Amino acid sequence: VGLAEGAQRVVVGQIRAPITPATVSYLKSLVRTASQEPKAQLLLVELDTPGGLVSSAREMVQTMDRSEVPIAFFVDPAGAAATSAGAILMLASDFAAMAPGTNIGAAHPVGPQGEDVKGVMGEKIT
Predict the structure, then answer these.
(1) Nearest-CA neighbor of 83 among 60, 101, 108?
(2) Using an 8 Å Cβ cutoff, are 20 and 58 in contact?
(3) Which of 29, 34, 44, 73 could form a disulfide bond with 93, CB atoms 3.0-4.6 angstroms apart?
(4) In what order do the strands lie in the sheet with 9-15?
(5) SS3 of 99, please?
(6) pLDDT at residue 19 is higher than 90
(7) What percent of the chain stands above pLDDT 90?
(8) pLDDT of 107 over the 80 cut
(9) Are strands 40-47 and 81-83 parallel, antiparallel or unpaired?
(10) Following DSSP, what letter does each residue of 44-88 receive, concatenated?
(11) Where on the phi/psi map is residue 100: left (φ > 0), alpha (ψ -120 to 50), or beta?
């Protein structure tokens, strides 16, 4: 279907996984696609992540900062989350929105029963 003259486009992607080097590559490809689309006015990324590697989040933030097209992150659907590294991405985006019933925030390592991990092991995990 052709676009009406003067119509604008939104490039849409989804991140529904932990933040890893593969997620970095995916975001870079979305940014590249949006920058090559002449009528793209926004890159919208639907997000649901428990977080992940801070090194990957940092690289994604740098990619977002260099993007010529504004980037919006949308935590969706209900029950989805943007925790830990996902919260960093939300804060770094040009626009951030959340569907009802979603959450955002910090995450901290816990043991298999939800308990704090203490001592040297806790320090290593953190």
Answers:
(1) 108
(2) no
(3) 73
(4) 9-15, 40-47, 71-75, 95-98
(5) coil
(6) yes
(7) 73
(8) no
(9) unpaired
(10) EEEE-B--B-HHHHHHHHHHHHH-SS-EEEEE-STT-EEETHHHH
(11) beta
pTM: 0.81
Angle at 88 between CA 40 and CA 84, to 5 degrees: 130
Decide if 83 contacts 47 (C-beta within 8 A): no
The first and second tokens of residue 64, run together, are 């977002």
Using one digit for the tens of pLDDT, what is the confidence trace for 32-73? Answer: 999 999 999 999 999 999 999 989 999 999 999 999 999 999
Tokens describing residue 20: 């890893």
On whether the CB atoms of residues 45 and 74 are closer than 8 A, the answer is yes
Rounded to the nearest 5 degrees, what angle is found at the Cα of 70, between the Cα atoms of 64 and 75?
75
Report residue 61 as tokens: 């933030």
The letter for the amino acid at 74 is F
